[in-house]
Specification:
By secondary structure, the chain is α/β, with parallel strands linked by helices. It has two domains: 180 residues, 3-Layer(aba) Sandwich (Rossmann fold), CATH 3.40.50.2000; 152 residues, Rossmann fold, CATH 3.40.50. The strands form two sheets. A six-stranded parallel sheet has the order 3-2-1-4-5-6, sandwiched between helices. Helix 12 links the parallel strand 10 and strand 11. Helix 3 runs parallel beside helix 8 and helix 9 packs parallel to helix 15. The protein is globular.
Amino acid sequence: MKQEVYKPVYLFLSKFLSDFIKFFWKLFVWRKFNQPTNLDCISSIVVLEYHCIGDVILITPALNIIRNNFPKASITLVTNQSVYELAQAAAIADKVVSISIPWIHNIGSPQKWISFCKQIISLRKSNFNLGFNFKGDFRDLGLLCWINPDIRVGFNATGGDFFLTHVYPFPFEKHQVERAIHLLYMFGLQTDYQSPTLSLPTAVNCQQDHKTHIIIHGGAAHPFRMWPDNHWLKLIELLQPHASVTVVEVSETLELCNLVKEQLSNTKKFKGSLLEFSQQLKIQSLLIGLDSMAVHLAVAVGVPAIALFGSQNPGLTKPYGSNGYVITPPSICKHKKTNWRLCKDCMNEIDPHTVYDTAMKICSQ
């Protein structure tokens, strides 16, 4: 089966390193895997998910399942600073801990490394009974082992199964939401499939009227996921006679916002924190975005979202639920790609008129 989650060369190197470490691990550290456990005694649980904002949103169904199975346990979510305020406001865990991970957030200074180590040692002192990691990343599993919950549950996608007490094969073909739920099912919890849902307060100054409101978030973590600025401008031009359009200003969309200001002066602009953005979303009729956190956040707060995908498989990370829509290029990728999964040329092939027609159809419903 062809996997589309991890870069193949990184996957190979990670498993090679894992096998090398595993040899010495067995010599000096002895662990019994898959021991019978009394789940009735679970009182404290830690969940690691700190890679991206969208990743945190997509595991909210899994967090709800953990809560339902362990109603008396305290759940701690270890995540990144970008999503910390939102996770706190949505109360998706009893405690949210913000952490900067060296291999994710490019920590270079010794002081930040020392701060990171102190945070992990503090988490270790919490004496968690149970820990989950849904990523299957070799480094994440090592960190979970360092925090040292009594029971450590995760996938072995990139190696590191010796860090876990309960290890399961990584379901590469599943959507990211279903992947996390599958891990809980394999562990033996009662599960049900559901869409990510975030309960958030509406800002006082956010008042809905009877207009059609469409918000555009053109930012993405990778440049090859971006849609050309001229396509966004054409789409906004098509939408403006029928809707009030707002463009979100983030670091990746500064040039787009400047062009909109010059050429389409009637377009609104939004700039604010992630929590403020989520509150702004709640008064919108539709969000149009990319393969990024914005579409997941929109669906989670109950707003329809259109996600534009290039050559990457939308079945793995599309906005999950009945309010999520996907637009892909008109043909299969035949370009010479410089990225193993993403294609800038495929994104360029998505026609603004196609996006406009889909948006109008959704809004009319």
